[in-house]
Amino acid sequence: MRSATLFSGCIAALATLVSAELNISQPLLSRQVLPSIFKPPQVFKNVNLVRTTNLDKAYPRETINVIIENVDSAPQSEYYLPFESGLISRVGGLEVKDKKAPEQGVFKVEVVEYDTESPTEFYLIHLPTPLAPGAQQTLSITYSILSALSPVPSSIEQSAKQYLQYTFSAYVPSAYETLKQKTKLKFPNSDVPDYTSLSSSLNADSVADPQKQGSTFTYGPYSSIPAGASEPISVRYEFTKPLTHTSLLERDIEISHWGGNLAIEERYWLSNLGASLKNHFSRVEWQKTSYMSPATSALKALPIPLTPGALNPYFTDDIGNVSTSRFRTGARESHLELKPRYPVFGGWKYSFRIGWDADLSTYLRRLSTGPSYVLRVPFLEGPRMPEGISYSRIHVRIILPEGATNVQYQTAVPIVSSEVGLHNTFMDTIGRTVLSLHAINLVDDWRERELLVSYEYPWTAGFRKPVVFTVGMFAVFVTVWVVGSLDMRIGKAKKA
Amino acid sequence: MAATEGDQFLKQATGRNTRGLLRVIILCLIAGAAVSSRLFSVIRFESIIHEFDPWFNFRATKYLVQNGFYSFWDWFDDRTWHPLGRVTGGTLYPGLMVTSGVIYHLLRFLTLPVDIRNICVLLAPAFSGLTALATYLLTSEMVTSPSAGLLAAAFMGITPGYISRSVAGSYDNEAIAIFLLVFTFFLWIKAVKNGSVFWGALTALFYGYMVSAWGGYVFITNLLPLHAFVLICMGRYSPRLYVSYTSWYALGTLASMQIPFVGFLPIRSSEHMSALGVFGLLQIVAFVEFVRVQLPSKQFQTLLRALVVLIFVVSFGGLVLLTVTGVIAPWTGRFYSLWDTGYAKIHIPIIASVSEHQPTAWPAFFFDLSMMIWLFPAGVYMCFRSLTDEQVFIVIYAVLASYFAGVMVRLMLTLTPIVCVASAIAFSQILDTYLDVKTPKAESNENGTSDPAKVAASAILPDSLRSTRNPLVGIYSYASKLTVVGASAVYLMLFVLHCTWVTSNAYSSPSVVLASRLPDGSQHIIDDYREAYYWLRQNTADNAKIMSWWDYGYQIGGMADRPTLVDNNTWNNTHIATVGKAMSSREEVSYPIMRQHEVDYVLVVFGGLLGYSGDDINKFLWMVRIAEGIWPDEVKERNFFTPRGEYRVDDEATPTMRNSLMYKMSYYNYNSLFPAGQAQDRVRGSRLPAEGPQLSTIEEAFTSENWIIRIYKVKDLDNFGRDHQSAGAFDKGHKKKRASKRKGARVLRVE
Fold it and tell me: Is B704's CB within 8 Å of A283's CB?
């Protein structure tokens, strides 16, 4: 009887969840499949374009500032941004803003995909207000490209410098004609042994291409580049730091109303994409050089700043606790310093898990209207290193208390997919409500972005566990009593 | 009148209930103490599986939990003993893993998804609580005093002899086996006392469980028949014995044969023959008893004599015949080593190389049993005084277990329960005597009508006889009582202190993780094993074969998750000897062996930098001896000693030693850590040769932070078909050596 009501309640809760999911905040990224013979309508013109490629981290970050002009006779709102099909799956965190009015927020962006094998794929940028014919607008497009840097030479001595090669097109790929453009490259230092020199005849100013200025190179300006033009160039520069890459990050955020606790666990599958060791690892050399702590392509430590008030951190891997970690905590900051069991050289892997607790009251607010709660947590935490870290896939799970309904979320991070499910763990009867969010191709720049989750949690749901537990214990006692008082002796009972 | 009687009844009932409740509470507290004193390692280090064998058990348990019971039963493990593999499902005692698996699934059913690792780590402490309970039950069967049982339970809970094998994380067969051992004995005593099929069948059930859990079940298999045999010899044959023994033997043997690893051993191996023999003897005795009732005594005598002789001749002849024809397996080497402690050293070095198979040193008894070592004989003596059927059992158990514990260190474990029981009997006797505050009344009272025997005696004998006067002998002064009781209390407290100290200092180290102290007193963890194992796990191919000495096989399987050549199962001596030969030979000999076994990495343990004495150079002689056992012409132990018979690693080390792969791998590149000519081995305390060894067929792949683990990669064949020595020489710019010198090095052809 009880289970039947529970079951129907569960069904009802699920039904509301499903209906709720339809009207939750629209994900910023969606996909749209276009016919194979698609070509973007030539309704725009890039008046002036400046691309800044920042190479001081372990992944290139590009910012394209472009003044676009509507050359069509009707107002237009769809601007296409082309990428090579191999590249688009590694482009992460693409954000478009109006340079003149950044307070308007980010524009809606979707990935447009051909259904055949086409060399080019597009991001489709929706301008919030259609651009009138002849009008101009300045877009600021930022994104980072994962796994775009390759170490050359691909294997080096243990304490040698590491050089990375970055290959791209001197002409910014565009679906529209570009009147004037240039590309600025910012290197981490001025040690750039190899780079492609273009003939000065291509250059609009007829000067040597590229122009060097310290650690900054400038390709261009180029004038009147037609749509789809490309001019491959590659640069090779010194970067003796690890290329830390996380192929998968699983992040669980578990809420306990009874304990007033927020438990966070993160599981990392790390690897170093840098140059591999030419010879094998030599401990002697490592110990000799470690006193001077020179720049190295090996990953030695992972500093993780946690939100202040973090408690009980742990750092384990598949075979137990990793004792080489430090946790510094204070009123202002909590700092977790992880040291992998071994220095992670190029081509090596290291997977581990960390976790910590926090006081729930700093993250959770109860709304004044009804039994609703709002949770505000960072979407992504994780290491903060000067050389950066990139994530291919991120799975975030928000494990809400058992019986939480009407889950909605909002975040500035592009989410690929999301679902609400159930998770059965300690002493659950119907299972805890879980919101799973999947994101791809993020970098450590996104670690400040917040995730807001709102849900309803009636007070009766909070008593489900104690009641079920009490009833269960009582049932056990009753059963024992009944069984114990049965007379199962063969033959007649002796009279006392 | 009825009312007062009822009152009396109620009062007694509440008294009994109170005492029962108190007993339950005390037992719970004892179990709590037993569990908590085993948690040192979890608190100091972490929840981790200890040592070597537990890693295999843990791995097997994970396999069981992931793949289910039937695939566990049929498990063929191709990741050990490469390239042979191991029929793991049929060559292990599954009781431990199945117990953990059942607990795991039960907890999941109760919506408590506890990690399987935590179940495995805490299984031994949990079962030690049960062992304390079982000891209470066993002791309570022996003596009437209930305090003896409680004392025995407390002793069992904290005695180091048992804790040594049951701290949290030591997930070994003994973890549950000692509980099963004690509980089976309890059930057996119960069965003998009651002569009940029910208790006999329960004994068989738990005996079956014990067989599934530990190879030490043979101890029960021989002890119970011995008990029955001694009882028969003492003329104490009774239908009770017949019923309990036959029901145990029939059901228990069937149960034990269900375990694939045991199979038909109970009817085919010599170790089990005593149980069968006593079973037969009991039938005869029962038959004879039956006949005796039917026949007059004169004829009976003749019949008996003829019968006994005939049966003895027939059965002994049959046994010999069967043994000779090979139907019954003769005694195994492990068994011989129980009788002759030198046997293993000569014939089976692989058994002798395990430290826990060494004979026990005297201090170990005091270390593991503390004050019980002198209470134990007293308890056994007290059993002699009354010598009921169950006390005969104690005596036999005490004698046998004492002997075995002296022969092999690990069998201290089987001695511990009986020591606890016997010393608890002795101790409770002391306490019962001296804690009694009441002084018996003077003789005048004693000559009352209470004792009919005494009345009769006094009627016959004159009062003046001294022997009949039966004066009130004893110590009744409060001071003396207080002294004795106080001393006992002090002993008990010292015992607790000793146990806690031993547990915390000697038995709570995971041995996977080493602890040291920093100058400021804080704990520093030396985690080299896991560093290297995790490196293997993360950065080598999934099926990269690792060659190491067999001690580390289980750990590599469990932590690094890579195939190994040999492991702690040691079922194939030749394979181990092959690895020993590869380790102890020159590179030119080792390389073909390693190529033939598809070895990708070689792992050695080297403690020279840290002063870690359990390293491979110290174990090296065992490798040599085991290899010599198979290839006496190629590996010779003598060549590893200097002419003066010393085992050295410094300048005076023999050429054989310095050219052996193990020596080279241990010291490769080691002297570049030190100023020239200053390289020091901190374990052997010797200065190493100025020039370190050179390697040509393998290359260093990884060395852990404190150099404890060194991993080498076996080089692939040379691209030009040269052998690695000449290739290395060519790279260095040396002239090519003459072909005649290359004769020794065989180049392996690989198609």
Answer: yes
